[in-house]
Amino acid sequence: MSRILLVEDNVQNLKLATVILRHEGHEVIPASDAEEAERHLAANPPDLVLMDIGLPGKDGYTLTREIRRNPALAHIPVLVVTSFAMKGDERKAREAGCSGYLTKPINRVELLSEIRRLLPNASSSPRAGRPGPEDPSGRSGAGGAGK
Ligand code: MN
Question: Which residues surround ligand 1, an ion (CB under 5 A)?
Fold first, then answer.
């Protein structure tokens, strides 16, 4: 389980991402704007930041740059999840220092796979009782018709 700071001003997206992450066994710290996120980052840095770009006030690019410039926070993976889906937007996010970039609508499989990529050492939730068909270790029913 990891502590994930979820920076998202849209209530529906916040709820959806929270459900997905908690179901996976992660602790979710919600922040609906950059200022709230900064308070959490200063008080108790998370293992990963899920970053919306369009926020009231300071945007996600700016907050990502600030994280990268702060020696106490610079190591934290920042995964951008945004509806800004033009090519230039991804470049801007990469230049700001994000570690991954996903576009909305939020896709559960993509989101969890990116988080696993960025937090390779975090053992995820207890697997018992999680019969997800896309569980990478779930070999039991490997009866797939062999590609
Ligand atoms: Mn937003």
Answer: 9, 52, 54
Confirm whether 135 is domain-assigned: no
CATH code of the domain covering residue 113: 3.40.50.2300
> What pTM was estimated for this model as a whole?
0.82
Calculate the dihedral angle through the C-alpha atoms of 30, 35, 65, 68, rounding to the nearest 10 degrees: -70
How many domains does one find in the chain? 1
Report CA(103)–ligand 1 centroid distance (Å): 12
Residue 127 has pLDDT above 70, yes or no: no
- 139 lies in some domain: no
Give the distance (Å) from ligand 1 centre to CA of residue 6.
Answer: 11
Distance 59 CA to ligand 1 centre (A): 9
In angstroms, what CA-CA distances link 72 with 23, 45, 80, 140?
Answer: 29, 9, 20, 43
For residue range 48-97, what is the model confidence (pLDDT) as tens digits?
999 999 999 999 999 999 999 999 999 999 999 999 877 799 999 999 99
